[in-house]
Amino acid sequence: MADTEEGMSLYSISFFATLTATLLVQYVTRAAPDAKVQGLKTAAFKKFQLNYLVVYLLAFFADWLQGPYVYALYDYYGYDAYQIAVLFIMGFVSSMIVGTFAGSLADSYGRRLFCAVYAVSYIISCMTKFHNNFYTLLLGRFMGGLSTSLLFSVFEAWMVSEHQSQGFDEALLSDTFGLAYFGNGLVAIAAGVVAEGAAGSQGYVAPFGIAIIPLIIILGIIMKTWNENYGNQKIEFCSGFGNALKAVANDPKVALLGAAQSAFEGAMYTFVFMWTPAIATPETKASLPYGTIFAAFMVCCALGSSLFSFLMRKTTVETVPQIIHGVAAVANFGVVMFVEDKFIVYMMFLLFEVACGMFFPTYGTLRSKYIPEETRAAVMNLYRIPLNAFVILVLIKVKNLPVETVFTICAVAHAFSFVAYTLFLQKIK
Hints:
Blueprint: H1 4-31, H2 35-39, H3 43-66, H4 70-76, H5 81-109, H6 111-128, H7 134-151, H8 154-165, H9 172-202, H10 206-225, H11 237-250, H12 252-279, H13 290-311, H14 321-337, H15 342-370, H16 376-382, H17 384-397, H18 403-428
């Protein structure tokens, strides 16, 4: 990719090639749907599923709009790599500490309420991006970290609880997870395209302004159409957090599942920070089509979620994670081995994103089966403590670490996930 125009062509070709593969797998999967699963879908379930998917996908659309340009905006504002790392660290610290307790509060005081809190806190986060002031941006990262923690816990906790309370068949959960994460890939693609267009015409801050629109929409839908549901309301806030700790400490299955998930996501969030410097060179830094690259990543995520739906017709969900963790480890080791060859690095990134696309619906289904309902949101946020600690430790040292060292750490983390999940399998047999 020494020649910029050839690089642009590569990114465009890879986008359309992976999109074609995704549509093909999705067609094979959906052209002949599982008759048993389809027979379980009542009109009430379809209405519930559609309502949840609309809110869920808009929530992630707002999140994905910001993804391609967070690093680029801070760089444009004139902050160096260390200052940018501090801003990112604030987000992960917020997610690790405040977000963890927010999960317990959601179980006690209402998951619907905290889905609404997600929208409000993210709106505040987006608004801070319009001010080139380090401490204002730091506040924005704090609110963004809280929002991210809620996004990845309370929406799912609300959906699983509501699914069960309305008496829908458990077999339909994997269908909702599969559609949610496939749709998530599609909205991420759209977000990448919209973000690139907005940034190109209005500057790097424009995608953050656009993100406020879907956040306002979901806030209205949640407050108007969602029922409230809870974990165990008899458990006080501190007790709820303590019970989440006990659930992890006393049940090896929950602990090992959390270890595998946390190591994978810790390495994944490190990738979010590192993919831009890993793929750019001094010659291409200012001209890379970050939105197109991000969209290609998200197509690969959609491909992964489509592969998950396909595999669910052939095997059980418990067999899939070893494939995911193996592919992720290989992809990250590939980056280390070929770090100077940006074409191979890019290919390894695409392979890793396929693994990410499989990871989310797979672990969503596993969590619905193995995490106790009464502390579901708290346990899910508890899993985020080690992953955020992992990312913080890497980011603190990132200024002094070469790219290949960071991805070696990520590869080892994925290998650890493989081992942890293998031990989990032994516990459930």
